Known about the structure:
2 copies of one chain form a homodimer.
Chain A (H helix, E strand, L loop, with lengths): L8 E7 L13 H18 L4 H6 L2 E12 L9 E11 L4 E9 L5 E13 L4 E3 L3 H4 L25 E7 L16 H6 L4 H6 L2 E8 L8 E7 L8 E9 L2 E10 L1
Amino acid sequence: xxxxxxxxxxxxxxxxxxxxxxxxxxxxxxxxxxxxxxxxxxxxxxxxxxxxxxxxxxxxxxxxxxxxxxxxxxxxxxxxxxxxxxxxxxxxxxxxxxxxxxxxxxxxxxxxxxxxxxxxxxxxxxxxxxxxxxxxxxxxxxxxxxxxxxxxxxxxxxxxxxxxxxxxxxxxxxxxxxxxxxxxxxxxxxxxxxxxxxxxxxxxxxxxxxxxxxxxxxxxxxxxxxxxxxxxxxxxxxxxxxxxxxxxxxxxxx
Amino acid sequence: xxxxxxxxxxxxxxxxxxxxxxxxxxxxxxxxxxxxxxxxxxxxxxxxxxxxxxxxxxxxxxxxxxxxxxxxxxxxxxxxxxxxxxxxxxxxxxxxxxxxxxxxxxxxxxxxxxxxxxxxxxxxxxxxxxxxxxxxxxxxxxxxxxxxxxxxxxxxxxxxxxxxxxxxxxxxxxxxxxxxxxxxxxxxxxxxxxxxxxxxxxxxxxxxxxxxxxxxxxxxxxxxxxxxxxxxxxxxxxxxxxxxxxxxxxxxxx
Lengths: 254, 254
């Protein structure tokens, strides 16, 4: 297997495990996001940027949103896949990164995603300009304007909804002491129910993180009821804590 | 790195990911169980026993219990570890398997576990004798008596308890259409709370699965209140659905 690795691009082989897959035998959305963020961690490591070095800046990378497209064909647990990522472009405040998951010969592309990263000051919890030492090693082009991701449509006030409540659990938190980004997808999708989730698969999605969910909070995940007669099946999602909207997403389904 | 692989024993290298670790930066118990069961899946695959072949028997392997011991020193995400497993012994109904996780030079042993497996008929949902084709390839010795695992002490009727309720979610189910074995550990530990789980780490544990939790059920996880003054800190756990006890466990903590 040939893996592409230079300053801007990083690919790694990954054995898709049983526990990264849901009942369908294919990776769940939260595990897909977890796997690709592993690829970008490995990318950083390969360029000498380890956790200690990042922490010394007093800040951390935070994803503000994703958009992506998935193949109808998805890999099955036990399969070797290639996870790839590329630092596409950046300006003072934003960095765009592309991700992909393919089969082990680069023949079938299972997923392609784009993410916008910002750099957050850990003391003020506010965005700050990206430190040069944190971006230069990727050799991504500096640009004036960063193309925006598709903004998910909002849930309409009159829409038929399904909603469920979730309590943040200890094992939802990651080593960054926050609810792991990827976990939001379990909350977003679970209210759709087992029958729908066994029979449908995401085709396209966009997601925007507006406000982080904190430990101990109860979240409400609200989803527009899928309309089974439409030929293009789309669901709109929001995650709220009290009156705060934390995350919005829109998903088109196969 | 030298990996031991023969019929009875299988070792594999594994890059410990961020999402296999909890807030402490070390693997959570549920992820430890997930990782070692990946090792036994790979062991079976390496001997030609894939999912299709196992399914043809009309049955499946089921873990009835675990016991284990963990080092105070645990690996951190980003570290390469060795996951190992050995088919220790079997009789007509039970198979014993040992598991370990070490650093990438076999110098530090992070964890050593033992599990008892039974073979369940998928139609009757009852235990059946292990098909020869499912056990012979491991070349594990056939024995008369299988040593029992340590049985977890039961929660006393008078004990001070903490308890929390959990609803089974879609992403708790695995490709076997059941709540994944490893997930029980998230329910077992979560009621202990963030402060306790950040400051303590499992040293020894034993766990027994009595009755499986099914999709859509609500589980109650009950835990004896840790006594912070004792020099040997032990918690006793049970998971119940209605009046049924599904799982019991006992954990000694560092």
